[in-house]
Design brief:
Structural class: alpha/beta
Helix content: 40-55%
CATH class of the largest domain: Alpha Beta
Order of helices and strands: HHHHHHHEEHHEEHEHEH
Number of domains: 2
Number of helices: 12
Radius of gyration: 29 Å
Bound molecules: ligand AR6
Number of strands: 6
Strand order of the largest sheet: 1-6-5-2-4-3
């Protein structure tokens, strides 16, 4: 459905270009790979290309003036042809073909005077860049793009799930827990009563009721006791278990507060590092999550999260 340029599009264009041949136009001389098929097979290939373009709702404008302007531009400055131009070049090819004049029209001139060769070479360079760019977009970079840090009140967010920094009773309290219960309404407490509490590091899910979020994932962070009571692992478990539950419910967007960093006194920087590391690691595996948002209550939390993101991105 999309007109997005893909490697396949580029390859199609390159492959397609080898089909241009007539008495006047001998593109066999500049083909990118040796022709190994019968000419008929190439005409089939050609048809497939056109069909593919149509299947993608690729609109072929019948606008000779702008086409000619484009053709002039390519001719004058072939080194400036860029990725976005590929779709124009596709249009250029197809509009010629549709009018059955591709060998006598402007394209033929481009072919005959050798400019087309430059265009082809440029297409190949674009193709190489494209591959490089997509290889560079390795997992960690994509993962970082799926994580967002914002300042604000978590109860206001339009997300699939809001995470609550609860206590083991799951019956509400102060801080973010109090804010979530207030915003969600009494029904949340009614559902929470049926859950039988929650262990530290574990997570349970309820509906979001009056919250903009459809779900609330309640997790119980560790109380900071100096760092020797397994606090780091328990905090990491809060994030991992909340995410696992989110995936189970096909949740795409989830917002976390800085669990344990309020009433439970977990040091902010340390907590942020654990949060970012655990989430990043989780996102390495394919899952439903498209966006994980760390919601910061105040500038200092925001600074700690951005610093943690920087550190994790560098490792
Ligand atoms: N939106 C986003 N973040 C918030 C909000 C909000 N509306 N309100 C507070 N924060 P805390 P804990 C931040 O104390 O440390 C409760 O009584 C806050 O600045 O809510 O895990 C529970 O019932 C802090 O950075 O949770 C438990 O008894 C972070 O959220 C206990 O507190 C977490 O602070 C849990 O303590």
């Amino acid at each position: 459905m999309s007109n997005q340029i893909t490697l396949e599009n580029i390859d199609n264009v390159l492959k397609f270009s080898t089909l241009f041949s007539s008495q006047d136009c001998h593109l066999y001389d500049i083909q990118t790979e040796p022709l190994t098929l019968e000419p008929y097979a190439y005409s089939q290939e050609f048809k497939r290309f056109i069909d593919a373009i149509y299947a993608e709702n690729f609109i072929i404008p019948f606008d000779w003036i702008s086409w000619q302007q484009e053709a002039n531009r390519f001719e004058a400055n072939p080194e400036l042809i860029n990725l976005a131009d590929i779709s124009t070049i596709q249009k250029l090819f197809t509009s010629h073909v549709r009018q059955e004049r591709f060998c006598s029209g402007r394209l033929a001139q481009l072919i005959n005077n050798g400019h087309f060769l430059t265009i082809l070479q440029r297409l190949q360079a674009i193709r190489a860049d494209f591959i490089l760019e997509n290889t560079e977009k390795s997992q960690p970079k994509n993962i970082m793009q799926r994580i967002k840090i914002i300042q604000g009140d978590i109860t206001q967010l339009q997300v699939d799930a809001t995470v609550n920094a609860a206590n083991s009773s799951l019956l509400g309290g102060g801080g973010v827990d109090g804010a979530i219960h207030r915003a969600a309404g009494r029904e949340l407490l009614v559902e929470c009563r049926q859950l039988g509490g929650c262990e530290t590091g574990e997570a349970k899910i309820t509906k979001g009721y009056n919250l903009p979020a459809k779900w609330v994932i309640h997790t119980v962070g560790p109380v900071w006791e100096g760092g020797n009571q397994n606090e780091d692992v328990l905090l990491a478990n809060c994030y991992a278990n909340s995410l696992a539950l989110a995936v189970q419910y096909q949740i795409k967007t989830i917002a976390f507060p800085a669990i344990s960093t309020g009433v439970y006194s977990f040091p902010m920087e340390r907590a942020c590092k654990i949060a970012v590391t655990t989430v990043t690691k989780f996102l390495e595996n394919p899952n439903s999550l498209e966006q994980v948002i760390f919601v910061c209550f105040g500038q200092s939390a925001y600074n700690s999260y951005t610093q943690a993101m920087r550190e994790v991105a560098e490792t």
